[in-house]
Amino acid sequence: METWKEGQGLFTRVTKSTNERFQNIEYLLNLSRISILQENRRLEELRDELLGVYKLIATIINQVHLTIRHTQETEALYLAIQQLNVGHLSHH
Measuring CA to CA, how many Å separate 6 from each of 2, 12, 17, 19? Predict the structure, then answer.
């Protein structure tokens, strides 16, 4: 009878210890999950910021191209006016 009680007590302690281990593992998994979710949100925010930067860069490049074209047209007009002033106008 005494041996059975000791065996029962040992079984109870092992079961309790195993349950505590599972609870600790579950706690660590939940912390990891929360950490992964936070990192995912941070990366999504960075991605969104980067997309905004790409859009801004595309707009700037477009404006630079328009400015270059305008400058070329202005230069062509200036050169044509100069040629007019000296009596030479290209027929092109």
Answer: 6, 10, 16, 20
78-92 exposure pattern, b = at least 16 Cβ within 10 A, e = fewer: eeeeeeeeeeeeeee
Longest CA span, the chain: 127
Number of H-type helices and E-type strands within the chain: 1, 0
The tens digit of pLDDT for each residue in 19-59 reads 999 999 999 999 999 999 999 999 999 999 999 999 999 99
CA–CA distance, 29 with 35 (Å, rounded to integer): 10
Q: How far apart are CA 46 and CA 39, in angstroms?
A: 10
